[in-house]
Amino acid sequence: MVVVGGTADLAPTTTVKFFAAGTAGCVADLVTFPLDTAKVRLQIQGESRLTLEGKAIYRGVFGTIFTMVKTEGPRSLYSGLVAGLHRQMSFSSVRIGLYDTIKQVYSRGSETAGIGARLLAGCTTGAMAVAFAQPTDVVKVRFQAQVRRPESGSVRRYNGTFDAYKTIARDEGVKGLWKGCLPNIARNAIVNCSELVTYDIIKELILKYNLMTDNMPCHFTAAFAAGFCTTIVASPVDVIKTRFMNSVPGQYSGAINCALTMLIKEGPTAFYKGFVPSFLRLGSWNIVMFVSYEQIKRAVMRYQRSWESPL
Q1: Residue 53 burial (CB < 10 Å; 0-12/13-18/19+)?
Q2: Phi, then psi, of 291 in degrees rounded to 5
Q3: Are 134 and 160 in contact (CB under 8 A)?
């Protein structure tokens, strides 16, 4: 227990962190979802180009957003949002909400966890989250990649979020809902380590050297750095994951085949397609998520204290 300003400031429990992480993830998705959709469209453009007379229809993140609004309407930017919120409530809750708990397990209860314990905790919670929430990610990507232009003969693949879950399970088997699970586990092990460990270490250093207090500017700075590092490290795996999850049955024999096909047909730069929207999205997502996460934790603990000690 730490005393702050004369009042007992209890450390948030695992349950509080679990709830705060899921809620903060939803808030961040609501704010940054158009950037995520633009990223997905840019990442699959190598495939789209094959059916659009060799012309690239998306150029840059803001050009992609403008094109989508012009040709498909503003709602297209939030296609897959429901599945995205399903994903955050299950995915972020596990990978972020359980991080501190798992870190304590690996560090055997030590107050100062080493880099090894942090990395192991990031990998563990990232893999656990993917194994649990993969169907929501598959459906989200399918909706984001779905082009809605009736004049060009485009047909909607799914009528709604729950129809997508049902249709994928019926047409591709239950394993279709876990399509791309292995590359997604690889991606999220990398993302979780880059994101959470970077945030954890930078925040700790800022507080250790008294550069800032444990408040919003500190959270903002650590979150921005975490987003930048994560984008550089995770972009190649993210592109492969998106391509493979959006592919029709039989298009790729596996994630490695997908990566090799991209390399041969489009060159190494294909692995960094959508880098700018990825950074804009991850950077802004990290800022919104971590700031919201810290504030929600504190709000819940304040409410808990007021509930337990009514005046």
Answers
A1: exposed
A2: -65, -45
A3: no
Q: Whole-model pTM above 0.85? A: no
Name residue 89's amino acid.
M
Cα 136 to Cα 20: distance, rounded to the nearest angstrom: 20
Find all residues with CB under 8 Å of 39, minimum gap 6, and list them: 61, 274, 277, 278, 281
Residue with tokens 């690889």: 186
Q: Rounded CA gap, 199 and 204, in Å?
A: 8
Question: What are 77-125's pLDDT values in tens digits?
Answer: 998 899 999 999 999 999 999 999 999 999 988 878 899 999 999 999 9
pLDDT (tens digit per residue) in 244-302: 878 888 888 888 999 999 999 999 988 988 788 778 888 899 999 999 999 999 999 98
Query: What tokens were used for 126?
Result: 């990232």
Inform me whether the pLDDT recorded for 153 exceeds 60.
no
> Residues 6 or more apart from 67 whose CB is under 8 A from it?
57, 58
CA dist., res. 136 & res. 80, Å (int): 9
β-pair partners for 9: 2
* CB-based contact 14:98 (threshold 8 Å): yes
Residue 7 in this model has a pLDDT that exceeds 70: no
- Whether the CB-CB separation of 132 and 91 falls below 8 Å is answered with yes
**Separation in Å, CA 273 to CA 232, 254, 285:** 12, 20, 19
Q: Are 104 and 14 in contact (CB under 8 A)?
A: no
Q: What is the pLDDT of residue 149?
A: 54
pLDDT at 141: 85
Burial 102-123 (b: 16+ CB within 10 A, else e): bbbebbeeeeebeeebbbbbbb
Two tokens at 121? 């905790």
